[in-house]
Amino acid sequence: MGTQRRDPAERTTAAVELRGVSRTYGTRTARVRALDDVSVAFPAGSWTAVMGPSGSGKSTLLHCAAGLEPVGSGQVLIGGTDITSASDRDLTLLRRREIGFVFQSFNLIGALTAEQNVALSLKLGGRRAANGEVRAVLAGVGLGDRLRHRPRELSGGQQQRVAIARAMVTRPSVLFADEPTGALDSGSARTVLGLLREMVARAGQTIVMVTHDPAAAASADSVLFLSDGRIVDHARRPSAREVADRLARLEA
């Protein structure tokens, strides 16, 4: 039986919220406004894709929402807590306990096995893995037989699944994904996207994903489109063709 998607509009609690956020780079004579008064709420238990032309501000939005970059003005809230003026120490603790990250480049440690890479997230957060906890998470992403393999012994898709397991073992409130399928072949990309869908459907995970791939975006509950640092469109459950058409209009 297939899993029925719920409309994100039905969910009222925001896992992440940006209120009037602006972010500017550069000097006074060469300033670039990467985000321009952006207000958006990402509902708990939803999967949102963020798209836009190159330079539209989508990566900056992700980084500001995750507390990786400071905002110039406005507020960022995670789980209702304002992190805008949080100290570096508090932000580090927050990222270790409440936030998971998945990147295009996997960022696995080559000298460690898959099991050790996943366990490292718990150690950095000051936790010891419960008996079998790490193995259970890896089994959940289909890598129960790859525990002792190092990254060089795994395919790209398998490495990305290790990265997802590493992000999820801490049970974060929200998972930020930056082009998670960008370095994968189409088959591996479908596997990773299916895994993300299961996390939303079964565990109520919140995912905010930046992508350039219309097929990946169409896997999400909704898609935000950015242009020149502003949200200019929002589609719920679009097809890959609809996503591609909207993106093409922005790039024209």
What features would you describe in this structure?
It is a single chain. The strands form 2 sheets. This protein has a 6-stranded mixed sheet, with helices on both faces. The chain has a 4-stranded antiparallel sheet with strand order 2-1-4-5, with helices on one face. 34% of the residues lie in helices and 26% in strands. The protein is α/β, with parallel strands linked by helices and 252 residues long. It has a single domain, classed as 3-Layer(aba) Sandwich (Rossmann fold), CATH 3.40.50. InterPro entries: AAA+_ATPase, ABC_transporter-like_ATP-bd, ABC_transporter-like_CS, ABC_transpr_LolD-like, MacB-like_ATP-bd, P-loop_NTPase. This is ABC transporter. Keywords: ATP-binding, Nucleotide-binding, Transport. One of its GO terms (cellular component) is membrane protein complex.
Instruction: Specify the helix fraction band.
Output: 25-40%
Number of domains: 1
CATH level 4 superfamily: P-loop containing nucleotide triphosphate hydrolases
**Assembly state (oligomeric):** single chain
Q: Tell me about the biggest sheet?
A: 6 strands, mixed
Could you say which overall geometry the principal axes of the C-alpha atoms support? globular
GO molecular function: ATP binding; ATP hydrolysis activity; transmembrane transporter activity
Pfam families: ABC_tran
Keywords: ATP-binding, Nucleotide-binding, Transport
Protein name: ABC transporter
